[in-house]
Amino acid sequence: MHKTILVTGATGTVGKEVAIQLSMTDDIRVRAGVHSIIKGENLKRLPGVEVVEMDFKDKNSLHAAFTHADKVFMVTPFTSDQVEMAKALVDEAKKADAKHLVKLSVIKADTEQGLMLARWHREIEQYIEDSGIPYTFLRPSSFMQNFINYDAASIRNEGRFYHSTGHGKIACIDVRDIAAVAVEVLLGSGHEGKAYELTGPESISNQEAAQIISDVTGSPVQYVDVPADAARNAMLENQMPEWMVNAMLELESAYSEGRFSNTTHTVQQLTSRTPHSFRQFVKDHQDSFE
């Protein structure tokens, strides 16, 4: 019998990759929840994928998306009301009698309560725990794809990228590996009630990342460390909301202190393959940086 798995945030960095990898699996129907049907057009080309419009603030929209969904991979947007949005999704999953809810969280959500994002994600996790729905939490480190999403333009145009992380090292992870774990957790057994911390195989600084990008592309790339005050002013001048500026600077400070430098072996343990190195990630996406 076919199983239907709802993926929320299916046009996002992780949600899209999860939908892609699930679509390669037999006997699975993927319901890709998107904010805009137009943005979800490419997902319609994937085998076994149904695209549904989801407005997290519209209960009728959520009810339609969750109807007959056996399992849910839950991604919420990076917004100031993401906790409320997530709780609405959990409520709908409970009404639909979902058999398993897999939530994309953040690394150290249970221990880094000094960080806004960690607090928010932990609040959502606790709401899920209290819901009675069988759950699994995936807690990944920073995404390698963030170098494409946020830094590739300045790398191409200036040969530089900018952050406030000092020489701190980060055990960043390729979202392809997060998705591979998600597929294993959604389709496998014995993962209920567990939280998995996910990292790449190595911990690198932004200076080392710049050198790797330089080596792969053949063009010099420099990391520029920006004082926190200057970074704040630049983000505010670019109309970034103050809550988001605060959240980003909290993360950058934590990275600079090496608080997210530890690696885990969880990806290999769950998928039986080594996670992508940063060098391999850059090779696979070389055209993004040239």
Automatic annotation (TrEMBL):
Alphabetical list of InterPro entries matching this protein: Ergot_Alk_Oxidoreductase, NAD(P)-bd_dom_sf, NmrA-like
GO molecular function term, any single one: NAD(P)H dehydrogenase (quinone) activity
EC annotation from Swiss-Prot or TrEMBL: 1.6.5.2
Gene3D superfamilies named among the record's database cross-references: NAD(P)-binding Rossmann-like Domain, UDP-galactose 4-epimerase, domain 1
Keywords: Oxidoreductase
CDD domains xref list: TMR_SDR_a (cd05269)
Every NmrA-like domain range: 1-260
Annotated protein name in UniProt: SDR family oxidoreductase
Protein species of origin: Pontibacter toksunensis
